[in-house]
Amino acid sequence: MWLSNSSIGRKVVMSVTGIALVLFLTFHMLMNLVALFSAEGYNTVCEFLGTNWYALIGTLALAALFVIHIVYAFWLTMLNRAARGNERYAVSAKPKTVEWASQNMLALGVIVILGLLLHLFNFWYNMMFAELIGNPMMGGLEATDGYGYIVQTFSNPVFFVLYIVWLCALWFHLTHGFWSSMQTLGWNNTTWINRWKCISNIYSTIIVLGFMLVAVVFFVKNLF
């Protein structure tokens, strides 16, 4: 199949799944910002999502996107390394046009995955999963009390620092991945690729700052 047997096909899969995940991150960030204004409003959103059939379908689809994106990322990396062979050990000056993020996408991806696992443990496991197994108080709070879990998570300094590190890695990953996806999908002329790089930097910064704002505000609230 073209999407798995060719280098371009594999890059297209990476690009499409990556863009879909960026759209999800946008929704998730906007949803989290609600918590800054209203605990009741945020919990209403959490309850609306909960374990309803559409939320479960969305969760399964999202999980599939993550798995496909991660598998293809490692697959492409291994194929690229195999293609270079011993050349990758040669000492050479890095071209100025090659960004740091593009040289470290695998390492950044690993950090993003580890941060995702932490996030799933602190929230999805105690909320949706707890409801699914019929133990809505498994995490010590009601499964739909998303606001309470935000307070609980960011009252822990270790979790706060880990989330900040995760979000920094996510920023680097997004800034390169976003415009790289557009390049793969055909927006690769000199004019548009520069525009996409600018857009990806701005958009990624907005998403990450939105997440960071929630973490910082709740961490500072706990201090006072």
TrEMBL record:
The lineage of its organism: Bacteria, Pseudomonadati, Bacteroidota, Bacteroidia, Bacteroidales. NCBIfam families: sdhC_b558_fam (TIGR02046). The keyword NADP does not apply. The keyword Transmembrane applies. Keywords: Membrane, Transmembrane, Transmembrane helix. GO terms for cellular component: membrane. This is Succinate dehydrogenase (Or fumarate reductase) cytochrome b subunit, b558 family. InterPro entries: Cytochrome_b-558, SQR/QFR_C/D. CDD domains: SQR_TypeB_2_TM. The chain crosses the membrane at residues 12-33, 53-75, 105-125, 158-179, 200-220.
